[in-house]
Amino acid sequence: MKKLTVFLASTAAALALAGTAANAERATDGDLKILFWQAVSTLNPYLSGGTKEIYSSSLTIEPLARYDQTGTLTPWLVTEIPTVDNGGVAKDMTSITWKLKPGVKWSDGTPFTAEDVIFTWQYCTAPDGGCAQKAQYEGVKSVEALDPTTVKVTFTEPKYYPYSAFVGAQSPIIQKAQFKDCVGAKAPGCTSANFGPIGTGPFVVKEFKPNDVVTYVANPNYRDAAKPAFASVTLKGGGDAPSAARAVLETGEFDYAWNMQVEPEVLATMIAKGKGKIETAFGTQVERINLNWFNPDPALGDKRSTKEAGPHPALKDPAVRKALSMAIDREVIDEVGYGEAGKPTCNIVPAPDIYISTTNDWCLKQDIDGANKLLDEAGWKKGSDGIRAKDGVKLSFLYQTSTNSVRQGTQALVKDWWQQIGVASELRNVAASVFFGGDPASPDTFQKFYADVEMYTNNFDGTDPEKYLAEWLCDKIPSPANGWQGQNIPRYCNPDYDKIVAELAKTGDLAKRAELAKKANDMLTAEGAHIPLIHRGQPSAISNTLAGVNMNAWDSELWNAADWSRKK
Amino acid sequence: MFNYTLRRLLFAIPTLLVISFIIFALLDLAPNDPTGELPLTIPPEVREQIRASLGLDQPFFIRYLLWMQQFFINEPLNLLEKMTGWQIGDGSRMRILSWATRSPVVDLIVERLPQTLWVVGLSYLLAVIISIPIGVISAYKQYSIFDQIGTFVSMVGFSVPTFFTGVVLIVIFSSWLQWFPSVYDTNHQVTDFASLMFQIKQMALPVIVLTLYNTSQIARFVRASMLDNLNQDYVRTARAKGVKENIILLVHVLRNSLIPVVTVIALGVPTIFSGAIITEQIFRVNGLGQLLITAIQGADIPLVQTLTFIFAVLIVLFNLIADVLYGILDPRIRYD
């Protein structure tokens, strides 16, 4: 009887498959034209780490599992997501076992096996390779093949969130046969492999002109015989965001344009032409103003913004930190600079849903009077110039950010609101490649933080905030001793916070993890490590003739390009 | 003349060495970093390893000497091998690798040359062809309606920046009239008449923008130079002798007026190779100009260094060519 049901089920499945195959056929919809205004430099994401390289390579190489548009982990090259319940993850959380889908082939027709998965780990962790995604393989002790379709990943210590290696667009599997002579220091020399990785994905690289254009054709060995619908993909690069939006929304020359950071009113006039639309996916990006907890006074020389400089004379007062946040009208910042691509937030962990806290939502409403009252009560008196001061310390701040028209607009708005509560600010912007460059010799990096407050966006990969929340630990404060490396940019330090994060790393239960993450998130905002402003989305322009796009902020935006098709 | 040329060429060597050192030092002192454009989710220790894998942990002089070896020895040898098919040594020389693409810089430049030469070069050629007659007529009929209009258009073309004219043309001809594409297809290959028409169409807008700009410049120069000569004594003598007006204009005056113009045109040739950064960006022509600007933004130092040095070589070379041409065209000037 059981055999019969299996038989029936498989016939039904075969019929269903045949049914879809009749509707859609591979490579019948012509050329898909995608525009990335930041041009793609290489197609090996392990050698670049840039978002554009991760997205463009995701059309050819794929991870074992990826996140769908809701942030749910979805099996991709495996049969199921391993969990403790189905035995895929060891009870002590020290290993995870992936079962590969049988019959998957590389685009050159050779079988995809556990050896390729093991090789990918060896490739990225090889010394002198400079692998940009090494953090994905952190804590991995060994990767071994139990049989050709089973891979066991063992961790050095219990890992309560084991889905990092081989998960998501940052960690795709590359072919051992193609890259075996390109390990470590030899990696950059393999230009033809880096420019045309063989993959399991829906498309194969046909031609690549670095920093210009990539041409792909449909993969003849793709595991779904009916996909992809498009015969080829042209991924053009160059120019700027507004002209890329115009090419999709106004002239209709392109089907899809990525990263449409364009002023809302400019986009609105383009959308009015009726050729396309903007869709936004919200991930975990938050635009925030970091407050410097150490004294950045230039008179302190090399000591400024370090522990030796002592606490910030004005920002050490919790009343000042809170008043600065109360004075800001996040709705207005959103409307002017972000439109559909942003929403006001008071959290540093703004998503996924289970981590969203509402504790600090008082900040969503601007309260100038309240902020003034708070400062009055704390003893900050307005002087003749309208600037508050106490014990000879003036509330006058240097406010820096990277050069970007939206950021400069936000700076001007915030400066005005702070003026209204008696806080003066001097605005400054630094070129992004310098600000985020991390050169220890430069005084203008965001890590050195030679300013009182600074604004930028940060986020975390995937859906788990554990590693992200660990950035605010006391020992992650940048200092000359660690070459200004360290992600605790506000220089926040609270032993109670460290305890919560340590507990999070030892908790396996998802509900409990969410509770701890919320507690940590609330603590950061309430204590004023930073002022969260806008939960930023990823807006992309999509032509009205394109079907099947499912905007995804948790993985590559092109994650389901196999399902894209031309509307008839 | 030959001695002079040889002397100048020898002088160029130390000049270029000093230039290469200055470029390298300036780039090294610049505070941007190749990992600056990466997402912040990549932790600092991984960034440090990326920098080390690029060779950034080496001291300044070692990196400079390495670049010199790669540029002056390895790359020419490699080029020679490719052109002749010979094998020199074991063939495994370190080539100059771009940091962003991790591929040989020279290959990138070779790949970009065609579109830059086509678009920027063609616009320069057109500008020369158009501007000389405009300059001649403007000067001959000074203060006429033609001269007034010519002056006005030149002023507009010269003072309105290309990022404005480019966008205006896109809005009119691509968005509104839909005559020309706004994005240049670098993969397009001319095989038949239809594809040639497409190539002309996609080149039209960027070429118009650059031609307008270059024409304005050269036409003003031709006009000024013509005016200088029209008032010379030899013109009066020729007229007194009864030489026909068009022979005076086109043989006597034009030939003498072109001497400084040829110099200016020769000096402008290197700018064809350095591309037109803004116009290339607007129309996504993705030639050498776009390559340079993305390399600068991404702190891709080997690529910026090599490109700027090649530009420096071209500028030094065309300065020499201009000087030599001057000597050939004008018998009054002798260098020896």
Helix and strand topology:
The complex is a heterodimer of chains A (568) and B (336).
Chain A: H1 2-23, E1 31-36, H2 51-57, E2 65-67, E3 73-75, E4 95-99, H3 114-125, E5 140-147, E6 150-155, H4 176-179, H5 191-195, E7 203-209, E8 213-218, E9 232-237, H6 241-249, E10 256-257, H7 264-271, E11 276-291, H8 318-326, H9 330-337, E12 342-344, H10 368-377, E13 381-382, E14 388-390, E15 393-394, E16 396-402, H11 405-420, E17 424-430, H12 432-435, E18 453-458, H13 466-469, H14 495-504, H15 510-527, E19 530-543, E20 546-547, E21 565-566
Chain B: H1 2-29, H2 44-53, H3 60-84, H4 105-140, H5 145-159, H6 162-176, H7 193-230, H8 233-240, H9 245-273, H10 277-283, H11 288-297, H12 301-329
Main location (chain B): membrane
Transmembrane segments (chain B): 9-27, 117-140, 152-173, 193-213, 258-278, 309-329
Organism (chain B): Allorhizobium borbori
Number of strands of chain A: 21
Number of helices of chain A: 15
Count of discrete structural domains of chain B: 2
Alpha-carbon distance between the termini of chain A?
A: 45 Å
Classified by CATH, the class of the largest domain in chain B is: Mainly Alpha
Oligomer: heterodimer
Mean pLDDT of chain A: 91
Helix content of chain B: over 70%
Mean of residue pLDDT values of chain B: 89
As for the CATH topology of the largest domain in chain A, it is D-Maltodextrin-Binding Protein, domain 2
Q: So what's the overall shape of chain B? A: globular
CATH superfamily of the largest domain in chain B: MetI-like
**Architecture per CATH nomenclature, i.e. the level-2 architecture of the largest domain in chain A:** 3-Layer(aba) Sandwich
Q: Helical segment tally of chain B?
A: 12
* Relative helix content of chain A: 25-40%
